[in-house]
Design goal:
By secondary structure, the chain is an alpha+beta fold. It is built from 17 helices and 15 strands. Strands 9, 10, 11, 12, 13, 14 and 15 form a 7-stranded antiparallel sheet that branches.
Length: about 400
C-alpha cells in the first residue's frame, strides 16, 4: 500500500473497509464524535484551525452531550467556539483557563524535543504539566544559576541576553532551560518575558521522571542537542585524543573490565559513574577488524563506533569522499545525536578491535537510567567547553 498513489490508497481503503468516499466535512463530523477523546479533540482542533464553521453546530452538540469524563474534548470544543465568536487576539486576552491539551500538542509537536512522542503522549504531557501565566518582565532563567524549573514557551515572547551578546527575542513554541537543567549546569543567559506569556513548567525531578517513562522524549533531547550544536562541534568522525591508551588496552583482546576502561577514554563518557558505566558496557559490543574485509555497509543502522586499534576506510555514499578512522577515533557521533543516517560505508584496512553501541539500545538504556543521561550530557558539554577554551587560547 505504501507504494501506491494517494488516490489509489483511498480507493483501496474504501474497498477494504466496505465504505464509500467521504469529503473533509463528513469525515471530520465522524471524527469529532469518535469514542477516543484524543481523536475527537484533535478533529475539533482541525475544525478550528481550518475555520470550518459549517460544523460549528456539531461542535456545540459535542460540547453539550459528550461524556463529562472526556475533558480533552470539552476544552477543545470550548476553545474552538470561543475563536468563532471573537478574534483570536481578543480570545487570548480574555481566556484565563489553561490552554487546551489539543492546542498545546499542536504547538509543541513541531519542536525536535517532542517530535518523537506520539500524539497520545503529547496529550498526556499537556494534561499533566503545570501551566503558568507570567506577567511582563518575569525572569524565567537567570544567567549563572542552575535551573530548578524548565519551561516550554507556549504563548507570548521572551527576551534572552547574556554578558557577551545583546538581547534577542524568542517566539513560541520554544524549550527553555532543558539542557542546562539536565546536566546540572548554570544557565548561559537570562531569559525574561517581554509581555504576558504562558509556559508549561516542569521541575527537574518531574523532568527526570518523564525521561524515565518516555524514550521518545530522550530521543527528542538528543535531536534538540544536535540542532543547537554549533557547526563543526559534533561530527561523524572525531578523535578521542587517547589513541595510545586505547591501543594498549586492545593488546590480547578486550575483557569486560578493559571494555569499561576503553569507554572511559572516550571524552563524552568520562563523566559516567562506575555503576552506570557497567550498564553502558553491557550494551557495547566488541567488533574484530580484519584487514581487507567490509566493516559496515552504508545501510547499517545508526550507531556509535570507537576504533580501539586498527584502521578503517570510510567511503561517503553521495559524494564519494574517503577518509580514514584510526585508533582513538569515534565514528557516528553526529548521527547518534540526530538520528540521521551516517551515509558512509566502511572497509577494514588494518587488523584491530572496535566497540559498537547501537542507537536503539542506548536510548532504551537512557530511558531506564536518567542519571546516565545527565552524565552523558555533562560529558558532551565539557567537550564543547574544552573546544571553546582551546579556541580562545589560539
Amino acid at each position: 500500500i505504501e507504494d501506491l498513489p494517494h488516490d489509489e490508497k483511498v480507493r483501496l481503503g474504501n474497498v477494504l473497509l466496505k465504505t464509500r468516499p467521504r469529503d473533509l466535512e463528513e469525515t471530520l463530523l465522524q471524527l469529532i464524535n469518535d469514542e477516543d477523546p484524543v481523536i475527537a479533540a484533535t478533529a475539533i482542533e482541525l475544525v478550528r484551525d481550518r475555520r470550518i464553521w459549517t460544523l460549528a453546530d456539531d461542535v456545540e452538540h459535542v460540547l453539550a452531550f459528550r461524556d463529562a469524563a472526556d475533558w480533552y474534548v470539552f476544552e477543545s470544543a470550548s476553545w474552538a467556539l470561543a475563536e468563532r465568536r471573537m478574534l483570536a487576539s481578543r480570545r487570548r486576552e480574555l481566556w484565563m483557563e489553561p490552554l487546551p491539551a489539543s492546542e498545546i500538542a499542536g504547538r509543541i509537536r513541531s519542536l525536535p524535543l517532542f517530535a518523537s512522542i506520539s500524539v497520545d503522549e503529547l496529550f498526556r504531557l499537556a494534561g499533566a504539566s503545570r501551566q503558568v501565566r507570567h506577567a511582563a518582565g518575569s525572569v524565567l532563567l537567570q544567567e549563572g544559576v542552575v535551573p530548578s524549573t524548565v519551561h516550554v514557551l507556549l504563548d507570548g515572547q521572551v527576551m534572552a541576553a547574556d554578558r557577551d551578546t545583546g538581547p534577542r527575542s524568542i517566539d513560541p513554541p520554544a524549550p527553555l532551560g532543558f539542557v542546562e537543567a539536565l546536566q546540572g549546569a548554570p544557565s548561559r543567559r537570562t531569559i525574561r518575558t517581554q509581555d504576558a506569556a504562558v509556559t508549561l513548567a516542569l521541575g527537574v525531578d518531574e523532568l527526570r521522571t518523564l525521561l524515565g517513562e518516555n524514550t521518545g522524549l530522550v530521543r527528542g533531547f538528543f535531536s534538540t542537542l544536535a540542532e543547537r550544536a554549533r557547526p563543526g562541534t559534533v561530527r561523524n568522525l572525531q578523535t578521542t585524543g587517547n589513541a595510545l591508551q586505547l591501543e594498549q588496552l586492545a593488546v590480547g583482546g578486550l575483557q569486560p573490565v578493559e571494555k569499561m576502561l576503553a569507554l572511559q577514554r572516550v571524552p563524552v563518557f568520562e563523566r559516567v559513574s562506575v555503576d552506570e558505566m557497567r550498564a553502558l558496557a553491557d550494551i557495547t559490543h566488541t567488533r574484530v577488524l580484519a584487514a581487507g574485509t567490509p566493516f559496515f555497509p552504508a545501510s547499517t543502522p545508526v550507531a556509535l563506533w570507537v576504533i580501539v586499534s586498527g584502521e578503517v576506510l570510510l567511503s561517503e555514499t553521495t559524494e564519494g569522499h574517503e577518509s580514514s578512522a584510526r585508533a582513538g577515533d569515534i565514528i557516528g557521533a553526529a548521527s547518534m545525536l540526530s538520528g540521521q543516517p551516517l551515509n558512509y560505508s566502511a572497509m577494514s584496512v588494518g587488523d584491530g578491535i572496535a566497540l559498537h553501541i547501537d542507537r536503539e539500545d542506548l536510548f532504551d538504556l537512557l530511558g531506564e537510567k536518567p542519571d546516565l543521561l545527565r552524565q552523558l550530557f555533562e560529558g558532551m558539554f565539557r567537550m564543547e567547553g574544552d573546544r571553546d577554551a582551546v579556541a580562545a587560547r589560539s
